[in-house]
Amino acid sequence: MADKKPTQKKNALGRGLGALLQDSPEKKQKQDLIPAASSAGIYEIPLSTIQVNPYQPRTHFDKDALQELSESILVQGIIQPITVRKLADDEYQLISGERRFQASKLAGLEKIPAYVRTANDQQMLEMALIENIQRENLNALEIAHSYQRLLAECNLKQEELGDRVGKNRTTVNNYLRLLKLPPDIQAGIRDQVISMGHARALINIEDIDKQLAIFKKTVTEELSVRKVEALVKALNNEDEESENKKAPALDPVRKYEIGKIQQRLANHFGSKVQLKANEKNKGEIKIPFGSASDLNRILEILEII
Which is deepest, 29, 32, 133, 264, by most CB within 10 Å? Predict the structure, then answer.
């Protein structure tokens, strides 16, 4: 069957994972492993010719789980082929399926079934990140780092990112905010010492020392998410009362209105926004950011960049 050439060059970025896996930029014929008409085929490839994925978003593989997968492969074989891209003759690079790849090596296999795709570095990064996110086997911190890399390295905007991973902007923001937490708390998320719910509560504490204190209390006493939320709320109320003592009291109705506006701003920007106003309707809005990428995220929401 003759190959069908596209009428115009398509930009693979800006589409979903399926489109990226099916379409590829034009290559010289000598670089093609298989005709385009056969691109959906599965091929047996020697494990020794496959390089690991340099864009792999997973940073930790459980050894016991890997051993169990290896034993399953010995009995059942590879049920889902891995996906690779061709670099040269007898040289491939993993796009997705590193657990299956590593477990197959552990099982002593010589070959593995694989889909062969053509992709440049940026497409490969996006495919690897989205494939892992869609499998829902990353911890919350790995998902946050994957989102950040998609924004920074694939030049995606937050709305585009949400479309790619099937999440709304608020959900994406909640994950990105995890990256503002101190290293000790991030390690707790990574090691599943605390859950995403615990982390989201801790984010609402501005003082790092207080964050770490409640984090340690949470781990030591094995506090529930609801208990941590209550502690954080009580702590923030204490801080707010302390601030209020320094300033003239606002009318209760006015205070309630300002509080509602502040909450709406916080939800919109995915950050704990501070809104202050006096009885003369003068005040300020503070939007904190934790990094250059976080600042760019806020500027993007403001449509400044």
Answer: 133
Same-domain pairing of 123 and 260: no
User: Residue 285 forms beta bridges with which residues?
Assistant: 275
Give the active site residue among 71, 98, 136, 243: 98
98 is known as an active-site residue? yes
Beta strands at 274-277 and 283-286: parallel, antiparallel or unpaired: antiparallel
Nearest to 205, CA basis, from 178, 233, 183, 179: 233
DSSP string, 267-300: HHHTS--EEEE-TTS-EEEE---SSHHHHHHHHH
Assigned domain for 72 exists: yes
> 47 is written with which tokens?
């494990």
Q: What is the per-residue pLDDT across 46-71, written as a single tens digit (0 to 9) for each?
A: 999 998 877 666 666 778 888 898 99
Q: Provide the whole-model pTM.
A: 0.50
Short-list 176, 145, 143, 142, CA closest to 158: 176
Per residue in 205-228, pLDDT (tens digit) is 988 999 999 999 999 999 999 999
Q: Give the residue among 16, 286, 296, 88 at the shortest CA–CA distance from 176.
A: 296
The tokens for 111 are 């070959």
Distances 264 to 27, 60, 173, 290, 292 between C-alpha atoms, Å? 49, 37, 14, 20, 24
Q: Specify if 170 maps to a domain.
A: no
Sorted by sequence, the CB contacts under 8 Å of residue 15 that are 6+ apart come out as 23
Domain count, the chain: 2
Instruction: Look at the block and give the residue holding tokens 């002593």.
Output: 108
Listing DSSP states for 161-228 in one string gives: HHHHHT--HHHHHHHHHGGGS-HHHHHHHHTTSS-HHHHHHHHT---HHHHHHHHHHHHHHT--HHHH
Q: How far apart are CA 186 and CA 193, in angstroms?
A: 10
Q: State the Cα–Cα distance between residues 221 and 205, nearest whole angstrom.
A: 19
Residue 7, classed as helix, strand or coil, is coil
Residue-number span of the structural domain to which 102 is assigned: 17-164
